[in-house]
Amino acid sequence: MDPLYLALSLYRRRSYDKCIEVCTSILDKQPLDQAAWCLKMRALTQRVYVDDIESEEIPEKDFLDDNVLATAPRPGTSMKTAVVPSTSGLSSRPRTSTGRPISGIARPGTQMRPESALDRVRTARPLTGHSARSIRLGTAAMLTQKDGPFIQISRLNLSKYAKNPCLSKPLFEYLFYCDGGVRTAMELAVQATQHGEFKDWWWKVQLAKCYIAVNLIREAEQQLRSAIKQHYHVETFIRLTRIYYRVDQPLSAIDICKSGLEIFPKDVTIMTELGRLSEGLNDTAMSVKYYRNILVEDAMNIEAVASLGMYHFYNNQPELALRYYRRALSMGAHSAELYNNLGLCCLFSQQLDFTIPYFQRALDLATDLKVKAEVWYNLSHLAMAAGDVQLAVQCLNLCLCSDSTHAPAFNNLAVLYHKMGKINLAKAYLTSAKTLEPELAEVHVNLEYLQHA
Amino acid sequence: MEQIVRPVFTLELNYKIIPGLVTIGKYDGTHSCITAATSTDKVLIHSPHRKNSAIAGRVLWSESNKEIATLNINQSITCLTVGMLLPDEDKDILLIGTSSHVLAYHVHDNKDVFYRECTDGVKSIAVGTFKDIKTVIMIGGNSSVHGYDNQGNEIFWTAVGDIATSVIFMDYNKDGLNELVVSSEDFSIRIFDKTGMLSEHIETEVVTNLVTLPDNRFAYSISNGTIGVYEQETRLWRVKSKHFAISIHYYDLLGQGSPQLLTGWSNGKVDCRSIKTGEVLFKDAMACGVSGIVEGDYRSIGKSDLICISSEGEVRGYTTTKTLTSSDGNGADQNTIRELLAHKQALLMELKHYDTNTKYNENIFYETESYENSGVIPASTRLEIAINTNDTDPKPHVELSLSTNNSTIIKATVIFAEGIFNGETHVIHPPISKLKSILLVPLFLPKDSPVDIHVKVLVGYPNSSQFHVYEITKQLPKFSMYCLKEKGSRKLTGDNYVQFKVNERLQRICLWINQFFLLTEDVEFDTGTNLSLSFKCLRDNTDLNMVFDMNGKTSIYTSNISLAADLVQSIAAYLNINSLESKSSFSQEEEKIKEHMSKLSEIQDTRLRLETDIADRMSQIRSLIIQAEDSRINDLDSLPYHYDELMVINEELINGYNIRLQNYNEKVDTMKNINTVIQKASRLRVGPKSSNMVNFCRTCINNNSVEGLIKVIRTGEM
């Protein structure tokens, strides 16, 4: 069989490693075979390709940049100052320490550890969303290159490749995703757009990607806007949305999404984005509307299912929530958070027989200490519902073992100890809860109560 | 009759405010918010009406003052304006100009209306209606003025010669529609309508600020401390101060029923003047320089107050004083009486002088010597004034010769004229040994513009203790610095020329020449096919040849494009020509354009590379800081290594910044040069042809087509 045909077939069947091997052997014989070179590049890229829209971590506050324009925007116009709904039970919904509601589904931006930027400097955690990913991509690519790098980047004649439309795009993707050399990729993109007389929208989007990677947000915005003028593409809309999210202008982001929806009616990706944005702004009604629309289009969308489940749970309809979460479970989602939510739903809908097994599962699956802490915290509620104060104290203690900064757990412990008559101990716990999370309202109320008692 | 007006409120912002960058806007449609640029590249929004009950999340309210919110701009702010941009909203949009971008920001909704790059820089912004365009954002750059609609699309463009320091809209010619008034650093105030320039005022220094006043007037301030008011072509008044006017505003502070002009000065003085006369009616002083004066309802009483903001962040609010209105009529009467009394006194004094003078002149035959002692000169003494060109001197100039018709001498002379001398006055005071009855004053006119010179001459005898003062006003014609050469000595053609056609008799051309040039005797046209004149420029000895053919074909040969433009404009204005097309060739300017255009594209390329460089270094810095902090915990030995590297990158960044700065400055210069040539070339045409040409040039620049640009400049056609 023709080796190139074989390589192509392997590529199509996603056997990238084999494809690379075949390509390498072709290139050994004919070092200047452009087709094989191109295919190898594509295969290498595909191997490490990540969906950089969904996995994007939007740094909450980059310590070197002030991309956010307004420092004190009006409530309701920013992710930081979303209006807290005063009606319904939704106001009491738990949030991550960054202030976002927990939906049980990981989304871009929610994987961030809830620490301040300063804390992250002290630990080895990444400070910026970008640097972590770029390091990761870079190292992943290195593994594949046993005998030296596949392409000597420094020797690349970029202007030559920029003029070749067949090679420039694969080369760009290789440089961007595989090599992690945003700089070189950007240079290639700049030259290629110039060569194409600024008519190719694809290059503009890529250029914007590069600009985002090096934190030139406004330049990226310009590129994306001009790309949209030439060609409508969902990706462009989403990326533009993300830019506005990043400069903390959610209303602009929503405008972009809505204009996108006019061109791509009922597009799931855009509606998901809208759902997330509305939820971020605490506009639950809109968010639920979009998630329902998503489910009409795509009944398998786990994010929508989970978000609707969460909505019903906090709307005092645990039975409905249970149905949504079971649906998510039956579609193959399998995580500690989901079991935890299922357990809670069962608890509140009085299906006590299922509660303990679900929490058991959740504990088995929880590898992350923070998640484990949350599960124990929820278990303490189960114990309280059963009237077992000792068990509740134990659960809370276990929660604190996993996460010693869990302020609500301290608060609840204090309440329990107060019930047992250990007022001084309760005070001590309340004080530590207060130092950990000064915004927690319950702590203040409880402390005041204790002062007067 | 100065009235004390006390501030109705004062408050401290506790931020340093950049002078001039203060505005006020109703971002929610009802409540005014002072908006100012702070010295740390932030925009401060003071909203005293904002209730802070709904603090949610981690709002970054200012620690000291919860009424203040700031916007991070990250670039130095060059101007700040508000305006209602969106057609169906009553909320003000904040426009922030930086050296390279303009941001239209919806403060209430925290979203961008648009954000776009202005390659020419942003030096001034105005929002308003311009002719029939409802809402237009005019942005004055380093050498041009751009107009954008509310989406950020360019809808207007014109070139001005230098940095546009201020842009305003006002109804200049009382046609009910707004014109555009632009002041620029080349000392001029230009008035544009959609087709081209309507009129131009030349000032003595850089015009820094323009403000629209009611009744078709506008006020201006100049960097030498002058402020003044124009009504159409006429200047109502102007005053000069040793401080600089930062902000001008009009407001009826004294309750006179019509507004007064408020000026905030760099030394903290705030004064209130009558718009018509410039008379000071009220004064106050702030602790430090004024940053801005705005007007807005800051006490929620339904009436706007006048608000002064100082550079240290002090805010004072004033409101209309009501007590004054009743005493107004009475005061006016008293004023008139006082004025009339003063006038009477002056007349009596004059009469007395005449009396003594006649007494001496009657005794003239007995005591000739007494003239000198008593400070009197013969009644027949006349002062003669003549203005000529002098090209024999090593430094050719316009010569003002003053002479008396008898033995009296000229002790000194004071010449007052705008824009000729440093400062506005020139005093010549010859040493006693050289006192004569004739005095020659060389004048070097830097620009071709008509100048009124006011001469005061002190006439008397060398030993007199008192002198007589003669006051003379003389007007120098526009093209004074050109002298006529002998006829027929040189060839009358050249490579650099502008040609056009005027359908006018040559006699009228002669009239124009006699009026606008400084000639010893009038030029007259008798017979022949053409009228050709040859002049020499007194500034640089270059030639200016003009050939007027019988059939109307006119050619002006000069290497100086701006002179050619001035001549064309002057002829067109004199002959009332509304539209004039011309062909031109100025090889030097064309070379310049070619050179600058290629330089510009080079600069653009480097700029992009430099920008990515900086961004790349920034990401390096990020990872280095993480590594350094990591090694502080894990591996102390490599800590200095990381910090060393960080320092190196920091230095590189600073170097990179300097390079970028240089690159930017070069770009600005290049753009300015190109725009200057276009502006001059546009003045070689008149009326719609001129504006067409400017639009063609804009298209050519956008397409980066050098040949096209040169062709447009040559022919005015695309």
From TrEMBL, chain A:
GO BP terms in the entry: non-motile cilium assembly
Residue stretches of biased makeup (Polar residues): 78-100
Keyword terms, alphabetized: TPR repeat
Disordered as annotated region, ranges: 75-114
One Gene Ontology cellular component: BBSome
TPR repeats: from-to residues: 302-335
PROSITE patterns according to UniProt: TPR
InterPro entries cross-referenced by the UniProt entry: BBS8, TPR-like_helical_dom_sf, TPR_rpt
Pfam families, sorted: TPR_16, TPR_8
Name used for this protein in its record: Tetratricopeptide repeat protein 8
Organism: Psylliodes chrysocephalus
From TrEMBL, chain B:
Span of domain Ciliary BBSome complex subunit 2 middle region: 166-273
BBS2 hairpin domain: residues covered: 588-683
Residue ranges occupied by any BBS2 GAE domain in the UniProt entry: 395-479
InterPro entries in the cross-refs: Bardet-Biedl_syndrome_2_prot, BBS2_GAE_dom, BBS2_hp_dom, BBS2_Mid, BBS2_N, BBS2_pf_dom, Quinoprotein_ADH-like_sf, WD40/YVTN_repeat-like_dom_sf
Keyword Membrane: no
Subcellular location: Cell projection, Cilium; Cytoplasm, Cytoskeleton
Pfam families per UniProt: BBS2_GAE, BBS2_hp, BBS2_Mid, BBS2_N, BBS2_pf
Sequence ranges assigned to domain BBS2 platform in this UniProt record: 495-575
Annotated ranges, domain Ciliary BBSome complex subunit 2 N-terminal: 23-128
Record has Cytoplasm as a keyword: yes
GO CC aspect terms: BBSome; ciliary basal body; membrane; motile cilium; neuron projection
Name of this chain's protein: Bardet-Biedl syndrome 2 protein homolog
Source organism per UniProt: Psylliodes chrysocephalus
